[in-house]
Specification:
heterodimer; A: about 220 residues; mainly alpha; Serine Threonine Protein Phosphatase 5, Tetratricopeptide repeat; two-stranded antiparallel sheet; 2 strands; about 0% strand; globular; B: about 325 residues; alpha/beta; Rossmann fold; Hypothetical Protein Tm841, Chain: A,domain 3; 2 domains; six-stranded mixed beta sheet; 8 helices; about 25% strand
Chain lengths: ~220, ~325
Amino acid sequence: MKFTAEDLKTFLKNVVDVMEENKDYLSELDRKIGDGDHGVTMSIGWQAINEKLKEELKTEKDCGKICIIAGRTFLSAVGSSVGPLYATGFLRGAKVFHGKSDLTDEELVDFWVAFIEGVKDRGKAELGDKTMVDTLQPALESLKSQFNQTRDFVAAFSKAVSAGEKGMMSTKDLLSKRGRSSRLGERSLGNQDPGATSAFLILSAFFTTVNSVHTV
Amino acid sequence: MKKLINNPDNVVDEMIEGYVKAYPQYVKRLSDNKRSLVTAKETREGKVGVLIGGGSGHEPAFMGYVGDGMADGVAVGNIFASPPPDPILEVTRAIDKGAGVVYVYGNYAGDVMNFGMAAELADLEYGTKVGMVLVTDDIASAPKKESEKRRGIAGEFFVTKAAGAAAEKGYSLEDVVRVAKKANHLTRTMGVGLTPCSLPQTGKPSFELEDNEMEIGLGHHGEPGMEKGELQPADQVAERLVNEILADMPVENGEKVAVLVNGLGSTTRMELYIMFRRVEQILSEKGIEIHRSYVGDYSTSLEMGGCSVTLIKLDNELIELVNHPADCPMYVQK
C-alpha cells in the first residue's frame, strides 16, 4: 500500500470530522465520571488542526512536519491532559516520518508504535487504569503481532482497531486510577472512559483512511 | 443554564480581554500568547518570580492573584483545563529576574504534564531555574496514606500567598519553594456542593443532585464527590468539614491557623458567613486560635453552589508571610 502525505492529511481531516460528530457523546461520557468537557476539548484541538490543514499544511509534503505541526497545534489549543499526551504521540511519530512524503507499511507500523509508546511515556498510565491506554495498548500489541505474521498492513490494522474497541469497552468494568475521575473509586464503575473512546475514534479514522487508500 | 456570554467558544479570550482592560494598573498581556498575563509593574531584579496558572472557570483564581505580594504572572487555560506549555513558558521568561521562577499549581494530570514540559523547556532553551510546588490540599480526593495524589483546590490561595510574600521579602528560589511546600503541607481543604455548574459549551449540569441532596467532598471542576448525602443545616455541614480536616491534620489547643471559607460560585456571602460562624465556634471550643480569616469567593467553579473550608496551620514563619500585605485586582490585604 502506498500512503502519501495527502493521505496523512486526509486522516487528520477524518479525525476532525469524527470528533465533531462525537463531541456531545464524548462530553456526555465525561460528565458521568469527570468534568464533562472531553468532547469540547477534543473538538477545540482538532478544529485547530483543521485550520492548519486549510492553510499552512495545504502544500506540505513532509509527513514528519505534518505530524509536528499537528502535535504542536493540538497542544497549544487545548493544554489539558490530552494536549501533552497526543502532542507527545505525534512528535514521537514525526521522527519515524521525518523527511518522507510516501510511507511504507513498515513505517506506518513504526509510526503507531512510536505514537502509542509516546502517549504511555508521557501519561505513565498502565493497562487497566481506565484511560486511553486501555484502547491503545491492545491495539498496539495486535498491530505488531498481526503485521509480523502477515505483513498485510490493512488486515493488521483492522485487527488492531477491533482490539482497541474491545479495550475501550473493557473500561466500563474498570475502576478509574488516573486523572480527575480517579477520585470516584467504585462510582466510576459501569461508565466507559471518554479518553479511551476518543482514542478508539482516532484509530478507526485511521482505518477508514487506509481502507479508502487501499481500495482505490 | 442562562449565561451572559456571546459565543461559547470565545468566553475565555473575551474574559481575559475584559480583565486586562479593567485593570491596566495591575496586569498586562504578553505578545505571543493572548493568555499569558504578567504584573503591569516592573518587578525588581533578583526577585524570584512566582508563576501561577490553571484552567479558567475558577475566577478570581488564578489571574485575580497577580499583583504585589502574590504572583508575578499567570498562564490561563481553557475552562477547567491546564494551559499548554507555550503561555507558561512566555510568562516564565517575562518574570525571570535572574533568581529563577517558582510554579505554583494544582496537582492534576494535565497541569503536571504541561507545567512540567514548560519547566523543562525553560531550563533547556533559556537556562531558567524553575522550582515546582504542587498544591494537594483536597482531603476528599485521596486518603491520607496517598496524600501525594490529592488535588489542589481553594488552599492554593494560601500556598500562593506564602510564595508571593516570601518572594517579595527577597527569599531565594530554594527558600520560596521550601515555604510554599511547607504551606501546602500544612493546608487542608474540604468542600460540599449543592448545585452543579454548567460548561458554556455544553450547557449541561456537571452533576445531578436532588433538591434535598448535597455532594460531599466534590472537586472544584464539578467532579462528583466522595458521596451524596441529605442536605444538612449549615452548622452540621461546617462540623463535618472541620472535623474531617482536623482528623486529617490534628491542630492542638493553642496552635494558630488561618481559615478560608470559600464560595464555589453561586453561594451567597450570607451563607458563607453562616458557615464561618460555626467554623469559628468549633475552633474556639478546641482552643485553636484563628490568626486571620478569609471569607468569600476565592476559587470558584463557574456558578456551582456550595463552599469549601480550608485551614492552614501556622508557624511563626508562615504567620509573617500570611500577614504580608498584598494588592491584586481581586484581593487586597493591607
